[in-house]
Design a protein that fits this description.
Number of helices: 2
Number of domains: 1
Shape: globular
Largest sheet: 6 strands, antiparallel
CATH topology: SH3 type barrels
Distance between the termini: 32 Å
Order of helices and strands: EEEEEEHH
CATH architecture: Roll
Length: 142
């Protein structure tokens, strides 16, 4: 059996939908995803409109490769996208890659090892960040 990447839409147990080039790895019970993009669809029933937002799923500015491994247990379902949506995905991915490349050429993000005293996180800010993390964990569907 030859391994091939296929474009799939994955519904994760967090409720997120992502589209990516997927390679199933049955030995490790996981899916390698390349170029994952988060897909958000908002439907306005009263007007009959649908709004689509596609964003990078990974923090492209700080990672070396736009790849991730997702465990089968974290996936609710995997479906085939329409051809037109695959084309839209590739166009959007190309635009984000070009934007990231441009930012890197302009100096990219500045990573500093030292925080100034003024920049240190106070207890209130730390509590807010911990609350955000807790809320995200509580949103898992399964």
């Amino acid at each position: 059996m030859t391994e091939q990447t296929q474009i799939k839409i994955l519904r994760l147990n967090t409720g997120e939908d992502i589209i990516a080039e997927c390679l199933l790895d049955e030995e490790s019970n996981s899916v390698l995803v390349e170029g994952p993009m988060k897909v958000i669809i908002s439907r306005i029933a009263s007007e009959g409109h649908t709004m689509l937002i596609m964003l990078p799923w990974l923090p492209l500015e700080i990672i070396e490769y736009n790849l991730a491994t997702i465990n089968f247990n974290d996936i609710i379902t995997m479906v085939e996208p329409k051809d037109s949506f695959v084309e839209y995905y590739y166009n959007t991915l190309d635009k984000y890659n070009a934007l990231i490349e441009k930012r890197e050429q302009e100096g990219g993000l500045n990573f500093s090892d030292d925080l100034d005293e003024e920049e240190e996180l106070d207890d209130e800010t730390m509590e807010e960040m911990l609350e955000i993390i807790k809320e995200r964990k509580d949103k898992q569907l399964h």
